[in-house]
Amino acid sequence: MPLTPVPVPVTRRQRVAVVGLGYIGLPTAAILATHGADVVGVDVNPATVAAVNRGEVPFVEPDLGTMVAGAVAQERLRASLVMPEADVFIVAVPTPFGPDHSADLSYVDAAADAIAPQLRGGELVVLESTSPPGTTAHLAQRILAVRADLSLDGEGGRPIIDVAHCPERVLPGRVMVELVTNDRVVGGLTPEAGHRARELYETFCQAEIPVTDAATAELTKLVENSFRDVNIAFANELAHVCERVGVDVWELIELANRHPRVSILQPGPGVGGHCIAVDPWFIVASAPEEAQLIRRAREVNDAVPGRVVDRVVAHADRLRAPRIAALGLAFKPDIDDLRESPARQIVASLAQRLPHARIDVVEPFITALPPELVTQPHVMLRDLDGAVADADIVLLLVDHTAFVQADRSRLGLAEKVVVDTRGAWRDL
Ligand code: SAJ
């Protein structure tokens, strides 16, 4: 006869272990801790664990610092290198892709291996990491392979573990708002697992939480980011077309978007971050013959940084000792995240192709250049005014508020060659 999960006694706070204290795991741990749970955040990085236990956040995310500091001070949140026992395990580890663009599930596997010995039966395990279809089932199978005494459905009288997928879908820079206001999609390996996961997220999410199966939830997340990637690829292709026909792409898109059923995103220097530049490949890897448009959009967006580099090199080739101010390294505005950043890729490529140039990088969100740039003697990290004052070419790569709102006449931009990849200084 199937066993039902062991209910958590109402007198005790739910114990939640959040595996991975990154951009998603730490906000999730903090918000659960402030909504009634006792949370342990588990991470392999001792520096991250130490920072969180001091009530500090090791990256920039508005409002997260206050929440983490409060939860740690109230002893509702602590961090650990060791997996504890818990009622709920939330897996929020990276799922990068390998050279062939298929997902590298080694962090998910490591999390499953660490969780498995802590299970007694009755726990809920939620995968939040963005994952190809089938990953939640894979995680469950990996646990059950070493815990044959447990089951997903009570078969053979074995205690149940509930396993579900609840993909994160919050926008970096707005995480603390969107965790509360965005709808969540939950997919269970069993209907019970899905409903139990929904109850967990209902403790802090004020929006709707529809429940489906795990594979549909997995694909939903990938489709959201692919939709955005295809739309940005369309915008980047329009920018290329406009260059050829001599039209201002920003004005073109603004005018086209006045149609009530047209909503084109913005062209830029390429698509970065760990989500939109990665997730579409998981669909392509799952259905290589079928996902033609999704693959093409990735290729279109991946080609943009190279075109930006060519434009800057063409300007620099007209100067004997060119000085370039490169504004921004992050993958999007007002954050310190340099992962998969086209700006970073562009600066690295310029440094290679223009060894005789001086490249001054302005990035207000970092204090040291990333490893591939710090070793280049002709690349320096500088402040905005100094870098622009010395530059022949000003390359705007990231629309950080500090750049967009800078007094352009004070910076003397009218005297410079300006390559504005974001359309932020269009009225120059
Ligand atoms: N970008 C453009 N043009 C645009 C919008 C964005 O070039 O019009 C570029 C950005 O500069 C950046 C990249 O795209 O390099 C991605 O930025 P983003 O703001 O579009 O998205 P992310 O990667 O920060 O967050 C996305 C979000 N997904 C969607 O909006 C569908 C977020 O909700 C997800 O939670 C996140 O991916 C994730 O973790 O998957």
User: What is the percentage of strand-forming residues?
Assistant: 5-15%
Number of domain units: 2
**Silhouette:** globular
For the record, what CATH class of the largest domain applies?
Answer: Alpha Beta
CATH level 4 superfamily of the largest domain: NAD(P)-binding Rossmann-like Domain
Task: Compute the average pLDDT.
Answer: 95
CATH topology of the largest domain: Rossmann fold
**Uncertain spans:** none
Question: What's the helix count?
Answer: 16
Give the helices and strands as they follow along the chain: EHEHHEEHEHEHEHEHHHHEHEHEHEHHE
Protein name: UDP-N-acetyl-D-mannosamine dehydrogenase
Family: Belongs to the UDP-glucose/GDP-mannose dehydrogenase family.
Keywords: NAD, Oxidoreductase
InterPro entries: 6-PGluconate_DH-like_C_sf, NAD(P)-bd_dom_sf, UDP-Glc/GDP-Man, UDP-Glc/GDP-Man_DH_C, UDP-Glc/GDP-Man_DH_C_sf, UDP-Glc/GDP-Man_DH_dimer, UDP-Glc/GDP-Man_DH_N, UDP_ManNAc/GlcNAc_DH
How is this fold's topology laid out?
Elements: E1 15-19, H1 25-33, E2 38-42, H2 46-53, H3 64-73, E3 77-80, E4 88-91, H4 106-115, E5 124-127, H5 135-146, E6 162-165, H6 175-181, E7 186-188, H7 191-202, E8 211-213, H8 214-245, H9 249-256, H10 279-286, H11 292-316, E9 323-327, H12 342-353, E10 358-362, H13 371-374, E11 379-381, H14 384-390, E12 393-396, H15 401-404, H16 408-411, E13 417-420
Parallel strand pairs: 1-2, 1-4, 2-3, 4-5, 5-6, 7-8, 9-10, 9-12, 10-11, 12-13
Antiparallel strand pairs: 6-7
Helix pairs in contact: 1-3, 4-5, 8-10, 8-11, 10-11, 11-12
Ligand SAJ is lined by residues 130, 168-172, 224-225, 228, 232, 265-266, 268, 271-273, 275-276, 331-332.
